[in-house]
Write a structure and sequence with these properties.
This protein is mainly alpha-helical. Helices cover 79% and strands 0% of the residues. The radius of gyration is 18 Å and the shape is globular. It starts with 6 loop residues before the first helix and ends with a helix.
């Protein structure tokens, strides 16, 4: 029997996902932070996020595979298009090089960086967040809306999913607005590359590039 997909269903999946992730931040993260350190903490948090995020996206993409324009296999089979990837990669790299020289006066490696961050803030973030927000949400919304509208809605949702962690971390309103604006722009870029390339690898790699630069050079 074919499962029918609608905007209402997509929004309901988001509300459920947001609720589950919020509970993870409120209830589970303090336990992990209080009982594990560095590598162990990174691996436990990575495992938890992988189960929640990948399980959520894979289930829904499989469930509605007859409705979606881009199936699970297809979004990973398509190759990265250089004409889409390289300009964004160049912009990201230039931004951080300029920021590094402006803020630190030359080449700089963040002394607070620890290799354990590569698990949760580099490898898994790029893969899991792109599978959920581009592979599922943007992919699903694009069935009912023009690409740019689908990308805007998905990007707003992408910003909101960060709020539980930001609020738990004690960010003030100025920091929330600044971080939210930056995340929204990045999400729009990742979404655009997915729409143009029809491949998840493009936003995944670009997401990784942005994250590794953010934790190492600033």
């Amino acid at each position: 029997m074919k499962n029918t997909l609608s905007i209402r269903n997509v929004l309901l999946t988001y509300l459920l996902f947001l609720a589950v992730w919020t509970l993870r931040v409120i209830l589970l993260k303090p336990l992990i932070d209080g009982n594990f350190e560095l590598w162990t903490k990174a691996m436990v948090e990575g495992a938890v996020k992988s189960i929640i995020w990948f399980g959520f996206a894979a289930f829904l993409i499989k469930l509605y595979k007859e409705n979606l324009n881009i199936g699970f296999k297809e979004m990973f089979a398509a190759r990265i298009k250089a004409q889409v990837f390289l300009p964004v990669f160049g912009i990201f790299t230039a931004y951080y090089v300029v920021a590094m020289f402006v803020l630190h006066g030359g080449f700089y490696l963040n002394p607070a960086f620890h290799p354990s961050q590569l698990i949760g803030q580099f490898l898994l973030v790029g893969i899991l967040e792109e599978i959920v927000f581009r592979g599922w949400f943007l992919n699903a919304f694009s069935l009912f809306l023009k690409d740019w509208k689908a990308n805007i809605i998905t990007s707003v949702m992408f910003v909101l999913i960060h709020f539980p962690s930001w609020l738990a971390g004690g960010m003030n309103i100025t920091a929330l607005l600044s971080a939210g604006a930056g995340i929204f722009v990045l999400s729009m870029i990742f979404g655009w590359t997915f729409e143009k390339n029809k491949s998840l690898w493009t936003p995944i790699v670009l997401h990784m590039v942005w994250d590794i630069l953010s934790i190492t050079v600033l």
